[in-house]
């Protein structure tokens, strides 16, 4: 049982180290995104919360590693409660942020539609979007031909090259949004899966540590009284009768 306990213990230390690295990665990514987000927006608040949550996770992981190294049952139990709290906070954070992600996608779609409909007035806006997203037209390059407009230079892959971007800007926008959502979900489920693994591992370690303590206590009780090391009496109390005789 001790060998199994040590295996789970060292596995827990490695998983906690990986958990801390992921938390540091979340803080780093949120810090970079925070510089691009506008203040007083849901995105800005989300990134600030991510930085605070990542720092909190690092402190919790250090606390949990201390409990594993020192074999402290009470610390492992508290660490389990902390992991449950972190899971709850992450759920609330993601649940509150989802509507803003959909709202942001609608705004980007609206900006693209306005840029395309105002092509005659402000063509630079659409051309700038095409250069950034490497697309051409709203649906594809045929949109310019249907409107009998010249194909702008922003639709070409390279200056002086005859190759055009075949994908429309709407499809590019949808593909980018789907890629971002897929990446975020994948990263989120990796973190949640690791947290659940650490939670189960911590519970198992706590149960095994409790059983080991019970075995040690039971083994001490099985030792005969003459062999068992009794706690030493106080130095002053052991000579109390000498003082009374004097």
UniProtKB/TrEMBL annotation:
Any one Gene Ontology cellular component term annotated for this protein: plasma membrane
Pfam family, one: Tetraspanin
Keywords carried by this UniProt record: Membrane, Transmembrane, Transmembrane helix
InterPro entries per the UniProt record, alphabetical: Tetraspanin/Peripherin, Tetraspanin_EC2_sf
Bilayer-spanning residue ranges: 17-34, 46-69, 75-94, 186-209
Protein topology in the membrane: Multi-pass membrane protein
Main location group: membrane
Compartmental location: Membrane
Span list, region Disordered: 218-246
Protein name (record): GH20387
Species of provenance: Drosophila grimshawi (Hawaiian fruit fly)
């Amino acid at each position: 049982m001790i060998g199994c306990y040590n295996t789970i213990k060292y596995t827990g230390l490695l998983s906690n180290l990986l958990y801390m690295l992921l938390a540091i990665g979340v803080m780093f990514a949120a810090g970079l995104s925070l510089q691009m987000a506008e203040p007083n927006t849901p995105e800005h608040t989300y990134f600030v919360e991510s930085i605070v949550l990542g720092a909190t996770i690092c402190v919790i992981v250090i606390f949990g590693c201390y409990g594993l190294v020192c074999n402290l049952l009470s610390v492992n139990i508290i660490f389990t409660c902390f992991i449950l709290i972190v899971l709850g906070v992450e759920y609330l954070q993601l649940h509150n942020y989802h509507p803003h992600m959909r709202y942001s996608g609608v705004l980007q779609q609206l900006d693209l539609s306005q840029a395309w409909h105002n092509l005659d007035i402000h063509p630079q806006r659409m051309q700038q979007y095409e250069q950034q997203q490497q697309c051409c037209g709203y649906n594809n390059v045929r949109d310019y031909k249907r409107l009998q407009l010249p194909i702008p230079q922003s639709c070409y892959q390279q200056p002086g090259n005859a190759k055009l971007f075949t994908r429309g800007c709407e499809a590019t926008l949808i593909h980018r949004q789907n890629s971002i959502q897929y990446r975020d979900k994948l990263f989120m489920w990796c973190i949640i899966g690791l947290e659940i693994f650490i939670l189960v591992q911590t519970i198992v370690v706590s149960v095994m540590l409790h059983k080991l303590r019970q075995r040690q206590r039971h083994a001490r009780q099985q030792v005969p009284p003459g062999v068992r090391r009794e706690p030493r009496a106080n130095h002053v109390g052991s000579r109390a009768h000498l003082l009374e005789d004097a």
